[in-house]
Amino acid sequence: MASNDHLTAKAAVVALANAGTEFCVVPQVIYEFWVAATRPVDVNGLGMDIATAETSILEIVRIYRLLRDERGVFGNWHALVVSQAVRGKSAHDARLVAALQRHGVANLLTFNGSDFSRFSSISVYSPTELLAGKLPV
Length: 137
What we know:
about 55% helix
């Protein structure tokens, strides 16, 4: 977990925390973390054993406000995938946006900003740009 992206993300989170930002996470992010964390390194995973992945998840839910998976997310998701003509794997991104909408969360910190450019209901911030002073903190 000492990749450059990890260190950049951590520094961006620290900068935002120092600025008084409230952080939250939706369960989908934890599910996706589990997949990547427990996937073998040779197939682009982190290669964690179950105990290490579990410890990481417990730390995530201790630090960040965990938003609920709610039935109402489906309606938002369905409207997004139809109105934005979302296809294939991008439907996972639409579900994340739908959950943010449902909970009134307006901002997303991600290295994959282009994946969310079609969704005008959220503001997308890159850790790299934030640290370079290109975005407001």
